TrEMBL record:
Keyword terms of this UniProt record: DNA-binding, Repressor, Transcription, Transcription regulation
InterPro entries given in the database record: DNA-bd_HTH_TetR-type_CS (IPR023772), Homeodomain-like_sf (IPR009057), HTH-type_TetR-like_transc_reg (IPR050109), HTH_TetR (IPR001647), Repressor_TetR_C (IPR004111), Tet_transcr_reg_TetR (IPR003012), Tet_transcr_reg_TetR-rel_C_sf (IPR036271)
PROSITE patterns per record: HTH_TETR_1 (PS01081), HTH_TETR_2 (PS50977)
GO-annotated biological processes: negative regulation of DNA-templated transcription; response to antibiotic
Species name: Streptomyces kasugaensis
Domain HTH tetR-type per the UniProt entry, residue ranges: 3-63
Molecular functions (GO terms): DNA-binding transcription factor activity; transcription cis-regulatory region binding
DNA-binding stretch(es), residue numbering of this chain: 26-45
Name of the featured protein: TetR family transcriptional regulator
Amino acid sequence: MTKMNRETVVTEALDLLDEVGLEAVSTRRLAKRLGVEQPSLYYHFRTKKDLLAAMAHAAMAPHAGAQLPSPEDDWREWFLENSRSLRRTLLLRRDGARLHAGSTPIGDLDRIRHKMAFLVTSGVPENDAQMAMLAAGRYTVGCVLEEQADAAPGGDEGLPADVPVIDHESAFEAGLTLILKGMEQCVEGADGAA
């Protein structure tokens, strides 16, 4: 039997996710993996939703630990790298985007505030910075959802032979560039109005 604490449960749950996918993750399966009775999991997590939230938070650790922007950073380069970091992190776990979608970044609020302040200080109007960060985050999650769905067994079946295979990274970069161009226009508009 594995010594069980909150961290162990989350680690084993993420390993289970990688093995079987989000649809097949269950508290029953996790308890069996840990060598415990299912009710003992509720000592650490009152509901499966609580467990999934903890899994999402732990899965995002690489992105959450990325260096925050500093005043001398170019906001454009930082914005692109921040979105790339999110994408890389979501791709580390099977169904990582599905696990993350809809999660609440409660523990990351100070980091989010820092990122927003950086963009605003760099000249991006506050409302535009908020909408751009939201759009980039949702765009990234959506791109990874599609990429992970294509990577799943049978994910690309049924496509006609003349339909090109999508290069997910190139498509992601193209869309991200369009979001950045929109931000640049907002900054130019704000500079012109000043």
